[in-house]
């Protein structure tokens, strides 16, 4: 387990790729990190709509990771 402060996009290559996750799920995880980082440092132009989309994507990622016991 990694501390939450240490979780970055690099976890995709370090932890998820070696576990053989499918390409779509890996892309979704990377996208979540990119959107989160952009929102954190540059703000969100789309406001609540973009946040809602990110939330739905994160929920999908979590569901898929749980299904694959990751």
Structural category is mainly alpha
Mean pLDDT: 82
Report the end-to-end length measured between terminal Cα atoms: 11 Å
* Major beta-sheet overview: none
Number of helices: 3
Number of strands: 0
Give start-end ranges of low-pLDDT stretches. Answer: none
Strand content: under 5%
Write the layout of secondary structure elements.
Elements: H1 10-16, H2 23-42, H3 47-67
Give a short synopsis of this structure.
This protein has 70 residues and is mainly α.
Give a written overview of the molecule.
The protein is mainly α. It has helices at residues 10-16, 23-42, 47-67. Helix 2 runs antiparallel to helix 3 (47-67). The termini are close together.
Features:
70 residues; mainly alpha; 3 helices; 69% helix
